[in-house]
Amino acid sequence: MLQIRNLHVNVQGHKILKGLTLTINAGEVHSMMGPNGSGKSTLAQVLAGRDTYEVTEGEVFFEGRNLLELEPDERARAGVFLAFQYPVEIPGVGTAYFLRAAVNALRKHRGEEELDAVDFLEFVKEKMRLVDMDEQLLKRSVNEGFSGGEKKRGEIFQMAVLEPKFAILDETDSGLDIDALKIVADGVNSMRRTDRAFLVITHYQRLLNYIVPDFVHVLVDGRIVKSGGKELAMELEERGYAWADQSIRHAAAAS
Amino acid sequence: MVSSTEQTSTSSETDATLDRWQSEEYKYGFYTDIETDSLPPGLSEDVVRLISAKKDEPDWLLQWRLKAYRHWLTMTEPTWQNVHYEPIDYQKIIYYSAPKQAKDRPQSLDDVDPKLLETYEKLGIPLQERAILAGVAVDAVFDSVSVATTFKEKLGELGIIFCPFSEAVHDHPELVQQYLGSVVPHNDNFFAALNSAVFSDGSFVYIPKGVKCPMDLSTYFRINAISTGQFERTLIVAEEGSTVSYLEGCTAPMRDEHQLHAAVVELIALDDATIKYSTIQNWYPGDKDGKGGIYNFVTKRAKCLGRNSHISWTQVETGAAITWKYPGCILIGDNSVGEFYSVALTNNHQQADTGTKMIHIGKNTRSNVVSKGISAGFGQNTYRGLIKITKSAHGARNYTQCDSMLIGDKCGAHTFPYIEVKNSTAQMEHEATTSKIGEDQLFYCNQRGISTEDAVSMIVNGFCKEVFRELPMEFAVEAQKLLEVSLEGSVG
Ligand SMILES: Nc1ncnc2c1ncn2[C@@H]1O[C@H](COP(=O)(O)OP(=O)(O)O)[C@@H](O)[C@H]1O
Ligand SMILES: [Mg+2]
Predict the structure, then answer these.
(1) Which residue has the CA at smallest separation from atom 17 of ligand 1?
(2) pTM of this prediction?
(3) How many CB atoms lie within 10 A of CB B103?
(4) Phi/psi at B416 (nearest 5 deg)?
(5) Residues B259-293: tens digit of each pLDDT
C-alpha cells in the first residue's frame, strides 16, 4: 500500500529525516516509536503533504501513485488520513458542517451523491458512539474549546467518519487518561481491516497494549534504527531508546 | 458664471479650485437644450437647474438643490479617511444622462459578455434577473417588469408607498418635502451636499401607521436599481407601529460606467416602528492591479425619532475600489434601538473605510455594533466607529464588537473606535479581535479532503456568521456565495 524509499526531509534548512525506508502493506498496523524530536511528526506531516517540510531526496508511493506529487487535499481524497498531534481550532466553523464538507468532498471525488444535513447526521451518530463522543460537540466549532482528550477523540471520530485506506495517528495517546486511551484504541481496533493500514506514532509503549501492532519501528535522529515485532515495544520500554540506537551502532561498527 | 455663491470658508486653495471649475464651465458654455439626452461633463448652477427641469420638479426642490450646490462649492473634499485615490475632477463628471434607449442595449442574453453571465451563474442569480442586470432591453425582460407591477399593486392596497424617488416628488410632495434632508441635511458633508445638488433618482418608501410590510422590499428595487445612476437618493419613513425590511443592491456585479457613487440614504422611524435595511454592495472593484473600480462614497443615516423605535443596518460590502460609509443611527426616542452589522471584504487593491455612528440622545437607548472586516491580497480595511452618549441619554447602553481577519500578509486591518460619553450612567462594552487564516487551519481542512478555496470560504463564512444571521434568509445565502466568489484566488 505504502512504500517509502530513502526519504530525506529538511525543515528550515535543518535535516530532520535522513534516509527513511519503510513499506506498509494493506491490513498491517505499524508502530513508529522514538524519542522527542526524532522526526516522527515530520514523517506524518510529510506523508500528509504539508509544504513547510521540504523533501530533498527519496520517494513515496501510495497504491502505486507518486504520493509526493499530490496536493494535501488530493492525498486525503485518495484515502490518506492524519490524526494530528495538535489538532487546530477553527472558530466559527461548526464541527458537523466541517465534517459534512469533508465527507461530501470525498463522495464527490468518488462520484457518489452528496449527503444532506439530515442524512449526514444519521450517518455520524453511529460513529459518535464508537468513540463515545458527546453529540453536543458536533454543534461546537471545530476543536474550539475542546479539552485535550476531546480533541484526540475527535480525530479518531473523524477518522471513523472518513473511513480512510491509510491512517496515521500522531501521538493520539499523549495526554489521555486510561479510559480515554481505551476508547481511542477500541475505535482503531474496530476499524482494522484487511484493506486498511495504520501507522501509529507514539512515544510510549502503553498504547500498544491496546492497539497491538504487527511491526514496531524505532526512529532515532531521522533514521529507523531498529524494526521488529510487537515484542520490540516491550523491550524498548525496559531498555530505553538509547539501547536501540546503540545496538544498531554496535552492529554497524562490528560489521 | 455662478453668481450667488455663499462662500463661508475660503482659502487660497479653494479659491484656486473654484476658479478652475468656473473657467471650465465657460469652456463648455452650458446652453444645453433641454431635449438632449445627456449633458457635457461639468457642474454648475445651470446644470443643477437643468437636472431639476428635466425631472419637472417643483420649485422648492430646485431651491433645495441649489442651496446644496452653493454650499458644496464652499466645501473641500475630506481627506481624513484612511483611503488613497487619485483626485476626482468634478468637472469631468457627467451629471445627467437619460437612460439608454432600448435599441442601444443588448437585445438578449446572447449579446452579453459571457464572463458576466458566468459570474451570474456562480452566484445563482435567477434567469430573468440576469437579463435585467446585464442591461438587456426592457422588452426582452417584460415578464419581470410585470412581476414588479403586481407587487406594487399589492403594496398599494395596504397604503404602502414604494416608488422611484422622482415619482414620489410628484405624487407625494408633502411627504418628500417634510422628510427630505431631515436626517442628512443638504450641507452634511462634501459628498452628501453634492448628492443633494445633483441626485438622479432612488427609492421612496412610506409605511403607514400600524402596517407591517408583508414582504421584503427587494425584487422591485433590483429592477429599479439599474437606472438610478451614480447619485442615488433613498428615503424611507416608517410611521407609528409599522415595520419594514428593505433590501438594497444585489450580489451580481453591477455594470456601471460612472466611477463616483455618492448616494444618500435617510431612514426615519416613529414610535414603535421598525426598519431593517440590508445592503449587499458589489460594485465593480477594479482589476487585480487596482485599475478602475468604483468609488463608493455613501452617506447613510437613520433617525429613531419615536419611542421604542428600532432601526437596524446590515451591510455586506464586497465590491467597489473604495468604500467609504458609516451608516449611523440617531437615537432620539426613549428606549429606541440602533443596530449595525457589517461585513466588509477587501481583496486585491480594494480599500474600505467603514463603520457606524451611534448617537444616543433619548433615555435607555441601546446600540449594538458588530463589524467583521476581511482583508485579502493587498486589501486595506478600516473600521471607524463613533459611539456618542449625550448628556440626556440616561441609561444608554452600547455593545461593540469589531473583528478583523487577514488572509495573506500584504493586506491590512485598522480599527478606530471613537467614544464620547457625557452621561455617567452609560454602559459601554467594546471587544476587538484580529485573526489570520492560518496555514495550519488550511492544512487541517486540506487533510480532510477540503480544497483550499472551499476551506477559505468556510472559515470566512464562519467568521461572518453573526452578521449573515441578520440578513433575510435568501439574501444570506447569496451573501455567502458572494464572499466565495470575491475571495477566489486570494490564497495560494
Ligand atoms: N516547523 C519547524 N520549524 C523548525 N524546526 C522544526 C519544525 N518542525 C519540527 N522541527 C524540528 O524537527 C525535529 C523533529 O521534530 P518532530 O518531527 O516534531 O519530532 P517528534 O514528533 O519525533 O517529536 C525537532 O528537532 C523539531 O524541533
Ligand atoms: Mg511529534
Answers:
(1) A39
(2) 0.81
(3) 7
(4) -125, 90
(5) 788 999 999 999 999 999 999 888 888 888 878 78
